[in-house]
């Protein structure tokens, strides 16, 4: 078969496939053109997920008849006046948006340049111009694309449902709206998902309001503002609290010079920053805006311009990781209020249910101060000798020092003074089911999961030791032999060096066993066998998928979980208040190592509403 030159229309359709993959791609290109035109208002409407109709209207600078005729030609643009591709400051610049859309849809454009007496209209059908004529369009431009991919049926087969395509278009408009708070955006679709975002101004406050419009007040209420600068880079935005996590990364919005991007560099930086707070299958919500000199970033990596490449990626990544970690540390014990809202909704629903009666059994599991303890109180002291015998039917628990006062077996003290209520987490008043601490604050109450909270404190304590002088060890008087299957034993022994850094000294002991000689001193008398088996399970499951730092942190979290005060343990008032005070001082204490909240806060005003007093 001889080589032949392709038909120009076919060439355009092939090239269009690189830029216009789905209706959302076309909308992105058209809205970016409107923003580059200086629009103060952009209205987007679609039908049938964008297949039947895409309409974008803006009040920007518009185009003259001459420019309009040239705009639908490939590689014609007004955005690179000097031919310099190293300092691109506009969103669109390839001159491919309109001709690419025209190659796969019927395109109609009405435009009018500022100061022009009359507007102009041009139509392109199946890639061919149908002439230029006058138009009474008042200002800016209106672009309509109908019957998308009608000329390329194969592309239609790969589109998702109309509802899914509508959601994708809405997401594109939302992402661009978040980066341009001074512009009013509206979106309308026959499948729903419509919205209207009034202009908020270009200030930091305006951006925060636009983010709240797009992502909801729930995100805004559970996010931390961040600001950071490093040489040619400036980073601003909102980082969601770790407890405000999601099952996927769809609620992560990252921008470079106002351009929404999906880049592995940022994905990795976000994971690294939240590593201490979330399990690997949970994702934070955030909106980050990185500004930099256009000369240090290449936005011409891919036709869709969703990926970027930095001249110094390490500096950009370091700025993102550092800023996020600093913001999360500044949050200290803050936790998302979403669980509290959900709890209030459940309580309100139950309160509306008629016929509910209180019985004596309903109070089971509630213990106030002064009652006789059914088991020994928790001993917070750091020591390497075995702890005192546990109470009846209760497994022994080792001691751990997080800077809290010791406790003895005497009855609990009276409720603390009113001054303690002024603390952020209030004053402990009672313990529910020997699992949850109930504390009174100045404007409500706090319920703390004692195991999750202590687990976080232990983790941070061990981590600080590891990063400082190293985790202190204690030599076991009688080395412990732990039997394991071949897979787990091999995984355990291959991580000997990592485990040694955590204070665990072990060695092979014949086939199918390991000999443990040393454990972290801070753990006191623990069940060595259970700890080693749990760590072996983790190592066998993860394999070499994690880097060294992530593996160490995961192992440290597993050790902390084993030593934390268990649910079902009676605590004294002194112990509970000491735990609350330590939480207030510890970064990240609002969530455990798996991203779950360590406490929920209920405001007095919300509680009063449950009883009809609000």
Characterise this structure.
This protein is an alpha+beta fold. 34% of the residues lie in helices and 22% in strands. It has 4 domains: 8-197, Heat Shock Protein 90; 216-330, Ribosomal Protein S5, domain 2 (2-Layer Sandwich), CATH 3.30.230.10; 338-352 and 366-455 and 566-610, MutL, C-terminal domain, dimerisation subdomain (formyl-coa transferase, domain 3); 472-563, Ribosomal Protein S8, Chain: A, domain 1. Strand 3 (106-112) and strand 4 (119-125) form a beta hairpin. It is elongated.
Characteristic key phrases:
614 residues, alpha+beta, Heat Shock Protein 90, Ribosomal Protein S5, domain 2, formyl-coa transferase, domain 3, 4 domains, elongated
Q: Termini, distance in Å?
A: 83 Å
Indicate the multimeric state. single chain
Q: What would CATH call the architecture of the largest domain?
A: 2-Layer Sandwich
| Class from helix and strand fractions | alpha+beta
Give me the count of strands: 23
How would the global form be characterised?
elongated
Tell me the fraction of residues in β-strands, as a range: 15-25%
What is the class of the largest domain in the CATH system? Alpha Beta
CATH fold description of the largest domain:
Heat Shock Protein 90
**Domains, number:** 4
Please name the fourth-level CATH homologous superfamily of the largest domain. Answer: Histidine kinase-like ATPase, C-terminal domain
Mean pLDDT, all residues? 80
Helix content: 25-40%
* H/I helix tally: 18
Query: How is the largest sheet built, in terms of strand order?
Result: 5-4-3-6-2-1-7-8
What profile does the largest beta sheet have? 8 strands, mixed
Give the uncertain stretches in residue-range form: 356-364, 370-415
Radius of gyration: 31 Å
